[in-house]
Amino acid sequence: MDNKITHPYRPEGELMHRAENRINLSSADSLRRCMRAGTVLEAPAVSANTDLALEIDLGASMRGIIPKEEAVLLAEGEKFKEISVIGRVGKAVAFKVIGEEAAKDGRPLFILSRRAAQLECKLNYIDCLEAGDVIDCKITHTERYGAFCDVGCGCFALLPVDRISVSRLPHPRERFASGDLIRAIIKHRDSAGRLFISRRELCGTWEENASLFSVGQTVTGIVRSVESYGAFIELTPNLAGLAEPCNDLEEGQYVAVYIKSIIPEKMKVKLVIIDKCPALSAPRPTPVFPIEEREHVSFWQYNPPSCKKSVETIFDGRP
Fold it and tell me: Which of 137, 260, 263, 274 could pair covalently with 256 via S-S, beta carbons 3.0-4.6 A apart?
C-alpha cells in the first residue's frame, strides 16, 4: 500500500510505524520542530479522561493530550458524539502539535489536535478528489448497510453494501474485517459533503471473472442466496452462478460445485452442487484485475458486449 500513496494523509494506523514518524516522536525538541512545521504525526491513544480528553502515548519522557474540542473535525451542524473520543482509546490517532505547557511532574506536556490533522487532510486531499479517482483506504467498522472506511487521518467515507461487489452480500463483514486495506473508487458526495465510494468496479468484469473457470471444472463457492428455483453460489466477489435446488442449504455455507455451462450472452453460469463442505481454514484468494492499479476510472461496463442486459457505472459525481 505504501508505494501507491503519494500524499502524506494515510489512514490512521498506517503512519505510526514509519521511520520518519518515530524520529519525529523521539524527543521534545523533535515535537517542537514538528509544531513549527505543522507536521501530521501519529501515536496510540492510551486513555480518555472524564473531560473526554485523549491521552496520547509520546513515550516516558513526554505527555500528550488531545482536548475534547480537538478530537474530531465536525461538519457544519454535526453534533459531537462521545464515541468519537472513547472509540479511539487503544488505537492510533493522527494529530498535529498545537501547543506546549509545563506539566506538574516536570515532563513536557504537548497539546495535540486530531481535528487540525483532519482539516488539513480534508482541504489538501479529500476535497481535491473527483468522482472516478481510485484511492487507498482502510476498513474501520461495518454495519448492515455498508462499510466505513478511513481515507486519511480518520476522515471517513461510506462503502454501501451494494457497491462492494456485483454479487449480493447480506452484510459487509462477509467480505471485510476491521483493519483491511483496500482500494476503492470515489462515487459521489452528498449535499452534506459526505463521501461515498465503490469497490465492485475493481473486482473485474463478468468476462474477466468467468475466464478463471472452465466447463467441467469442480470448484468451491459460497451460498449467497437460496430461492425456490435454486441457489446463487458466489465463485468470486464479482461472479455468481445458479445451482439447481438442493435441500438444507444455508447462506454463507461453502459448497463444492460442478460447472455445467458458461453462457456469456446471458451472463449465466450454471452449476450443480456436488457436496457441502466446511468453511476453508484460509481465505480464498481474491483475483486482482488491471483496473485496480489505475488511478482514475470514468466508465465501467460489467456485461460482455454479446449480452443485451447492461450493467455499468458512469463516474460523473451523481449517486
Answer: 274
